[in-house]
Specification:
The complex is a heterodimer of chains A (about 400) and B (about 400).
Chain A lengths: L1 H43 L9 H27 L1 H14 L18 H17 L3 H10 L8 H17 L4 H9 L1 H6 L4 H14 L6 H11 L8 H9 L19 H19 L6 H25 L18 H5 L22 E3 L5 E3 H7 L4 E3 L6 E3 L4 E2 L3
Antiparallel strand pairs in A: 1-2, 1-5, 3-4
Helix pairs in contact in A: 1-2, 1-3, 4-5, 6-12, 7-9, 9-10, 9-12
Chain B lengths: L1 H5 L1 H42 L3 H52 L16 H29 L2 H10 L12 H11 L4 H9 L1 H6 L4 H15 L3 H11 L4 H14 L11 H4 L4 H16 L7 H13 L19 H7 L27 E3 L5 E3 L12 E3 L6 E3 L4 E2 L4
Antiparallel strand pairs in B: 1-2, 1-5, 3-4
Helix pairs in contact in B: 2-3, 3-4, 4-5, 6-7, 6-13, 9-10, 9-11, 9-13
InterPro entries (chain A): CRA_dom, CTLH/CRA, CTLH_C, Fyv10_fam, LisH, ZF_RING_GID
GO cellular component, one term (chain A): GID complex
GO molecular function, one term (chain A): ubiquitin protein ligase activity
Chain lengths: ~400, ~400
């Protein structure tokens, strides 16, 4: 926030300054033109070959002198505004990092190889096909010379995505049709999706003003009945809106109902629920990856700077682990694999070094177990129990 | 702070344009003002020496004419500066939206939906707004990525389709698109114009692109059999570069002595038509340097770090693949092959059946065959007769011993 504000402050200064210069210069040039035009007009009334009267010569000399110095000021003023312009650049450099510029986090760029670029383009094309943005994807396929592909799952998602997009453009019809078609599935899930959509439809009617009042009330009578048990409070609130219909909603408790974000949220619920019902993956791989990457970058960049200062390298080593944990789980709420990290050796287990459950129920890695064993017996590092090596059992998370 | 780490080019590019517009405006102003000053001085001289009405009228008319021109030019060019200052501002406003959204995630809600126990309605709204912002960001990053690879048409379609044209660099890169088209047709004209237009900046970053263009022109003349013209070309353009490029100049001059199908290096590759492609890429890179855009696209950095943050050894083991995991997708796992794995200091376990985390609320339990599932999954894998079926191996046990697992 601070970063944006700092740059914004400088930009605003530049805009004010330029607007000022523009106005000042127009004004002073206009003034000069009108004064000089007066003289020109009066000269035109005189005999062409006669001598210009002394008084006019003197006056003109003064005006011209003034004119010269005035236009010079315009140039000077504009030149002086350079300080403000370059401050914007400095503010950007100071508040935003351009770190991956020279020394990247990733010491080699995978996407310098044509093969990897091609794969990435394929992933991007798939991402757009999924959204039904066929024109974008087709164009990419042509421009990057990719082999075309077809996938039924992409189309399934594309239909839903189109409905999602329609909601964000305030068109509820396709989504409401879908909801009606899948009403039994939605009911089984105790979904609030239909209510959310109906609510928006009602609010949309209200926004058309007093004339639609009757229509809005008729809508609630037709559609809100079945929700009364689950959403009594919300419906009370929605009906309360009618009080302020003639006077508008600014400063009333109902104002928040008319926020754009309510539409976005409903659209999001729609895509989430409909994907689960139809059985397609809601998120595009590309989206997950890029969002994870953007989330991981600041931490990795900080770390890199610290390591560079201490002349240690190796934020990024092929096939090793990243030096720090990027907790995507709590940020995005997703996790795809169980990772068991051995509490003794602090390394993740794998097929060669699997997790072993000791007789007491505690789990350590096989390597750790072999380090701790004395003869044939093994004392659990977490409780007083001893167990035999043969009693430990390999488990799969 | 994500925006701090990745939005630098978003702001810096329009700033560089603004800075350039400032310089052109200053130049225009100074030129027009000096013309005006000359006209004014003429008028002053006229007033002193031959103050006939006719003469003065003519001279005065000239001054007014110049004033009008100055007025028009000043307005136009300052308007142009303002335009790019506003581009900067607009992008800042877009970036700021993300910060506001994230901030409102932590505000306390006042409108609750009864059945939403996990999140309040308001924080759901904030999450939706933040997601929308991220979608736009992804499209922005993809547009920049396309521009970088020269997929101008696709970049254009995507930017227009998603309404983000103003916050991408498409318009700014329109010039470079023209130049690239020209270079692709083995023409140097537009690129030379670009060099002249950015002369001082190019000198500052020590660019040799102009020399490379002149050298290529020289080579083309030889290719066409116009060796004499080539010499004239060399006389005209090469001396300006003799300080830095003497070695290259010598090599180029030596070409005069060889037939164009020579097998001798380095002359053979100097005649190679592929040099045009290199020139094009070279131009593209110099253009980035000019705008201080990093050579690696943000998208490519984000994809690589993102894959690493998601990559686990399990993505490569047949019995723990997950169809929802991006890295488990065959294409992506190919890219991921050499990237580092994520680091996991503490065990993070999820139940394979319910996909819910394994913790004190969903205790991990081990089936007789060693597979671990959450407590909550047990009822799901038990059939009507009370037999437990392993969801992975289909083994069946009646009344099996299912024991707790303790994970530290």
């Amino acid at each position: 926030m601070e970063a944006c504000e700092a740059v914004e402050r400088e930009i605003s200064k530049v805009i004010t300054k330029f607007s000022g210069i523009k106005e000042d210069s127009s004004n002073s040039i206009n003034e000069l033109i009108s004064i000089l035009s007066l003289y020109l007009a009066s000269l035109r009334n005189l005999e062409y070959n006669s001598k210009t009267p002394e008084q006019q010569i003197e006056e003109l000399k003064n005006v011209i002198k003034k004119c010269k110095s005035k236009v010079q000021t315009i140039s000077t003023e504009h030149r002086n505004s350079h300080a403000s312009v370059s401050k914007v650049g400095k503010a950007i450099d100071r508040h935003f990092t351009q770190d991956y510029n020279n020394e990247s986090i990733t010491p080699y760029d995978l996407f310098e190889s044509d093969k990897h670029i091609e794969i990435l383009n394929q992933i991007i094309a798939e991402h757009f096909y999924r959204q039904g943005l066929n024109e974008v994807a087709d164009s990419l396929v042509t421009e990057s010379k990719l082999p075309p592909e077809e996938d039924i799952h992409l189309e399934l998602f594309a239909d839903l995505y189109q409905m999602w997009e329609a909601i964000t453009h305030k068109n509820l019809t396709p989504a409401l049709e879908w909801v009606t078609q899948y009403s039994s599935e939605l009911e089984a899930r105790h979904s609030s999706l239909e209510f959310k959509l109906r609510r928006l439809a009602y609010l949309q009617l209200l926004q058309q003003g007093v004339n639609s009042q009757a229509e809005a009330i008729a809508y609630t009578r037709a559609h809100f009945n079945k929700f009364i048990n689950r959403f009594e409070k919300e419906i009370q609130m929605l009906m309360g809106c009618l009080i302020y219909l003639p006077s508008g909603y600014g400063d009333t408790p109902y104002d928040s109902l008319f926020s754009e974000d309510l539409w976005l949220e409903t659209a999001d619920s729609f895509i989430k629920e409909s994907c689960e019902i139809v059985g397609v993956n809601k998120d595009s791989c590309l989206e997950i990856i890029v969002n994870s990457g953007c989330y991981a970058l600041p931490a990795l960049m900080n770390l890199k700077q610290i390591l560079l200062k201490n002349r240690v390298s190796g934020v990024w080593v092929e096939n090793r682990e990243l030096p720090i944990e990027i907790d995507l789980g709590s940020e995005f709420g997703f996790r795809y694999h169980s990772v068991f990290t051995c509490p003794i050796l602090k390394v993740p287990t794998n097929e060669n070094n699997p997790p072993m459950r000791l007789k007491c129920g505690h789990v350590i890695s096989k390597d750790a177990m072999h380090k701790l064993v004395r003869g044939l017996l093994l004392k659990c590092p977490y409780c007083p129990k001893e167990s035999g090596v043969s009693e430990a059992k390999k488990i799969h998370f | 702070m994500e925006i701090k780490s990745i939005e630098h080019p978003t702001l810096k590019v329009p700033y560089e344009v603004l800075n350039k517009k400032f310089r052109t405006t200053q130049k225009t102003l100074d030129k027009e003002i000096s013309l005006l000053q000359t006209a004014a001085t003429e008028l002053e001289k006229g007033l002193d020496n031959s103050p006939s009405v006719g003469n003065i009228t003519k001279l005065l008319d000239g001054v007014i004419e110049r004033l009008n021109v100055l007025k028009r030019k000043a307005e136009e060019s300052i308007e142009n500066e303002l335009k790019y200052a506003n581009v900067c501002k607009k992008r800042l406003e877009h970036i700021k939206q993300n910060v506001t959204n994230t901030a409102s995630l932590h505000k306390s809600p006042n409108m609750r939906m009864e059945e939403d126990d996990e999140h309040s309605n308001e924080s759901q709204i904030a999450i939706a707004a933040a997601n929308q912002w991220k979608k736009i960001r992804l499209n922005r990053l993809i547009v920049e990525h396309f521009l970088r690879l020269g997929y101008y048409d696709t970049a254009e379609i995507l930017a227009n389709r998603s309404g983000i044209r103003d916050i991408t660099n498409i318009d700014i890169f329109q010039v470079s698109r023209e130049v690239e088209k020209d270079l692709a047709q083995h023409n140097t004209t537009k690129c030379i114009l670009w060099c002249i237009d950015n002369k001082s900046k190019l000198r500052k970053i020590n660019s040799d692109i102009e020399f490379k263009l002149r050298q290529q022109e020289f080579i083309e003349l030889i290719r066409k059999g116009e060796r004499l013209n080539a010499v004239k070309h060399a006389q005209k353009f090469f001396p300006a570069f003799e300080q830095d490029q003497l070695h290259e100049i010598k090599k180029a001059m030596a070409l005069l002595a060889f037939p164009i199908d020579t097998e001798l290096e380095p002359y053979r590759s100097m005649f190679d038509i592929k040099r045009w492609e290199e020139l094009l890429v070279n131009f593209r890179l110099e253009n980035y340097r000019l705008f201080q855009i990093p050579t690696q696209s943000v998208l490519s950095v984000a994809v690589q770090t993102g894959i690493s943050a998601l990559k686990t050894p399990q993505c490569y083991s047949a019995n723990s693949r997950n169809i929802n995991c991006p890295v488990c997708q065959p294409q992506i796992s190919e890219i991921a092959e050499k990237l580092p794995f994520s680091h996991c200091a503490q065990s993070r376990l999820i139940c394979r059946v319910t996909k819910k985390p394994l913790n004190e609320n969903n205790h991990p339990m081990v089936l007789p065959n060693g597979f671990v599932v959450g407590e909550l999954a047990i009822s799901l894998i038990t059939d009507q007769d009370g037999n437990v079926v392993c969801p992975f191996t289909n083994e069946k046990w009646s009344n099996p011993k299912i024991e707790k697992v303790y994970v530290m």
